[in-house]
Design goal:
By secondary structure, this protein is mostly helical. The protein is 66% helix and 2% strand. The strands form 2 sheets. A 3-stranded antiparallel sheet has the order 1-2-3, with helices on one face.
């Protein structure tokens, strides 16, 4: 095998071949790269971040932007057969995927407008569009092309070299398939023909055929069984025939001309000839000379067809050598058959079809990140609309869950209160055989002890009060900041009069004030509810202290049973106990459901970020979809409440029958009242503890919301201070007699009697541009005494930037 890789052109400037001189190793085409036009990404991306997050936040990504821009620039000089250029394409495409998650490049009101310009790899015709997926498809196309070139550059004179070539072709096929299945369906605008679905399918098939060819070559080099080589070669021929058929289709006929079609057809005929040649070798080993000669005839027919195709001079030489080899083998076989075997030579059309064995399958990547391992550099970055949508989802979901939890708790308390009015469960739990409290009472007290008892309740109440004060303080602090900024703006307006041209603060802070007032109102309502908790604790504090006593001390609170009283437990009493036990189980299921939904609430609050990023144009529908996912589970509270009502009705009926047939002594009545009072105390402790924990959760969530609002208010105040400094500087320069162009208003026209009012140097005007919006119809602050000089309605405020 030749150690030199030849790169020659024949008849067509795009048809370049890699090959080693061998009857089994035929050359590969070099696919051409797509030419790309230069593009600046850094400034638009940085500007978008600055608008959404502020300059300081945008500056933190300068290195990332510079790296992406460098990769984009290096694409203009991508080298053929270069692993570095291949990795460059894959790395840049991965960064594009990350950009797409965080920047509105494809759609949206704040869409970042780019013009991605690429040329067709074959026709060289240009096509431009602003869809980021188009850029991604084009750069991945070049990555697949370079991967195929690396495979074609392998000398393939050793098994290791052939394996490397196979891996490259399979990876290239996988990339073409990935572009077709994952990227191109998201491109809705015009694309170049080379990345159409039909073209990508054809190129994927070509890569697989070339990989199958390498596998066949490895079988020949490794002296594999003759029939196995024949199967591999026959499949290779079939795959090349499929490629040729695709290239000749009406869709691709204009893209792949007769040179490409001739190449694929010649390969199909050639490897079918190879398959017949190796079957002939097998027939020779089995002394079947007639079949051997027929296979050689068939191989000669096929290789002649390959020779008639439009191919390169190198391929013609390989075919010529193959023909000579077939001639020699046929001559030898005829001589041996005439002298020794005298076998009949069957017609070629009677030869059985050769079985096929396919090895090559596309290696399609799961994702670009899995292919390159490049993490998202913007993973901590979320657009403001997405952040606001996520916060809105959390608030709405929190309100939805809180309403359902409150309904379930109030319903439980209502059922327990109605039971308490009938003396349940105390009236049926008293056991005259046992001097102390029933076991159910002690179990409830033990559970309270595990929670920390009264001391824990007091501690959480202190925490609740501290959180309430802190939340009030947060609101007051933000309110003071807005008032301070507004006072500064008002003072400057009084000082500079009409020269102070920017919009008043109160017009710009309407939404911020509205949101802050909404939070403050919720906090005040919660504070009123907190006072009710204090009343409950104060009312039951003495009984709560009893929970710290030991079992014996608690049982001593219970009046002793009347030894003369009837102690038999009736059937109705047992039935009531069973029904109350079922009711307690339902109460427990409600508590478990509440805990489960709280955990899921936290998970969904994080999960929704990704979907909001993907659907930035439909944020409301995404939020509604996530909220609807909770409706089925929240419906379970309604179902449990209905079952609880049904059970209560059964309990009420059974208790009526029980009470009518019961006789009790005064001692029994006293004991039942004490038991019922203890059950009521346990219920009240649980209720107050639930109220306190709900309040702590509320303040914790509110502090997060207020903190995020504080960040927005801080950004607003910082921007206003920067604006204030710039405007004061301009006013002072004007008062000192230095003429500068006004950043808001149109330059005044020259007027008679005022020769000094001339338009400034246009170049100087361009250098004095600012980001602030123009005043709506306000006077020119730099032309005092001429209020008729107004902002021109046709002047574009976007021309002004810092």
């Amino acid at each position: 095998l030749s150690t030199n890789i030849l790169h020659t052109q024949h008849h067509h400037p795009l048809l370049t071949f890699h090959h080693t001189m061998s009857s089994s190793n035929t050359p590969f085409f070099i696919l051409p790269l797509k030419p790309v036009t230069a593009l600046t990404l850094t400034r638009p991306l940085h500007k978008y971040l600055a608008q959404q997050y502020g300059e300081s936040q945008a500056d933190q990504y300068n290195e990332v932007f510079a790296k992406i821009q460098q990769q984009r620039d290096e694409l203009l000089n991508a080298q053929e057969r270069s692993q570095g250029s291949r990795d460059l394409c894959l790395s840049y495409a991965t960064h594009l995927e990350h950009l797409n998650r965080h920047f509105p490049i494809n759609s949206g009101q704040k869409r970042i407008k780019f013009s991605f310009t690429w040329s067709d790899a074959f026709s060289k015709k240009r096509a431009s569009q602003g869809n980021l997926y188009y850029e991604m498809a084009c750069v991945l196309f070049n990555g697949a092309v370079i991967e195929s070139q690396i495979g074609g550059a392998e000398p393939r004179k050793s098994p290791e070299s052939i394996v490397r070539a196979v891996k490259s072709f399979l990876s290239a096929a996988g990339l073409f398939q990935f572009i077709k299945d994952t990227i191109c369906p998201k491109i809705v605008e015009k694309i170049t023909p080379d990345i159409s679905a039909e073209s990508l399918d054809c190129l994927c098939a070509l890569m697989l055929a070339q990989a199958q060819q390498c596998v066949t070559e490895k079988g020949i080099l490794g002296k594999m069984k003759k029939d196995s080589i024949a199967k591999l070669a026959q499949e290779c021929a079939s795959m090349y025939a499929n490629v040729a058929s695709r290239m000749q289709s009406s869709t691709l006929n204009g893209l792949f001309d007769r040179h490409w079609q001739g190449y694929s057809q010649s390969k199909a005929h050639y490897y079918q000839a190879v398959a017949n040649q190796y079957i002939a070798y097998q027939m020779n080993e089995e002394d079947e000379k007639g079949a051997e000669i027929a296979r050689l005839y068939k191989a000669r027919e096929l290789i002649d067809q390959a020779s008639s195709c439009r191919v390169s001079s190198e391929m013609k030489q390989i075919i010529k050598d193959f023909i000579d080899e077939i001639k020699n083998n046929t001559s030898k076989a005829h001589k041996e058959n005439d002298k020794v075997y005298h076998d009949r030579v069957p017609p070629t059309e009677e030869l059985p079809a050769i079985d096929k064995k396919r090895i090559a399958t596309a290696k399609v990547p799961e994702s670009l990140v899995s292919l390159t391992g490049i993490e998202d550099p913007f993973r901590e970055l979320f657009p403001v609309p997405v952040m606001e949508a996520q916060q809105r989802f959390k608030e709405e979901l929190n309100a939805k869950l809180a309403a359902s939890f409150r309904y379930a708790r109030e319903h439980r308390d209502n059922v327990k209160q109605k039971l308490a009015q009938q003396g349940l469960p105390g009236s049926i739990m008293t056991d005259e055989k046992q001097p102390g409290f029933p076991d159910q009472v002690h179990k409830g007290i033990d559970k309270i002890r595990q929670q920390g008892g009264l001391n824990r309740l007091r501690s959480l109440r202190v925490t609740l009060k501290e959180m309430a004060n802190e939340t009030h303080s947060q609101c007051d602090k933000l309110s003071d900041q807005l008032k301070e900024e507004e006072a500064e703006d008002t003072e400057c307006r009084k000082q500079f009069h009409s020269s102070w041209s920017r919009l008043p603060s109160q017009q710009l802070t309407v939404n911020l004030q509205r949101e802050l007032n909404k939070y403050r109102s919720k906090v005040e309502q919660a504070s009123n509810s907190d006072s009710l908790i204090d009343d409950k604790i104060s009312k039951h504090e003495v009984m709560f202290q009893k929970f710290d006593l030991n079992r014996q001390e608690i049982d001593e609170m219970m009046p002793r049973p009347d030894s003369s009283a009837q102690t038999n437990t009736s059937q109705a009493q047992n039935q009531l106990r069973d029904l109350l036990s079922q009711l307690d189980d339902m109460f427990g299921r409600e508590a478990d459901l509440e805990k489960s939904l709280q955990q899921e609430q936290e998970l969904e609050g994080q999960k929704i970020k990704g979907d909001l990023l993907k659907n930035q144009s439909n944020l409301d529908s995404t939020i509604n979809q996530y909220l609807s996912n909770f409706d089925t589970k929240l419906q379970e509270f309604q179902d449990l409440s209905q079952k609880e009502d049904s059970l209560y009705s059964d309990i009420k009926g059974k208790y009526t029958s029980f009470a009518q047939g019961r006789t009790e002594t005064q001692s029994q009545h006293q004991r039942q009242e004490v038991v019922q009072r203890m059950f009521e105390t346990i219920r009240m402790y649980d209720e107050i503890m639930a109220n306190v924990r709900e309040g702590i959760g509320f303040y914790s969530a509110m502090q997060d919301f207020i903190e995020k609002l504080g960040q927005r208010i801080g950004d607003f105040i910082w921007a206003r201070k920067m604006e204030k400094g710039d405007l004061i500087g301009h006013i002072q320069q004007h008062l000192s007699g230095v003429h500068i162009s006004h950043p808001y208003a149109q330059q005044p026209r020259p007027q008679q009697g005022h020769p000094q009012q001339q338009q400034g140097n246009p170049q100087q005007q361009q250098q004095q541009q600012y980001v602030q919006p123009p005043p709506q119809g306000g006077p020119n602050p730099f032309q005092q005494g001429h209020p008729q000089q107004q902002w021109h309605p046709q002047q574009n405020p976007q021309n002004y930037r810092r």
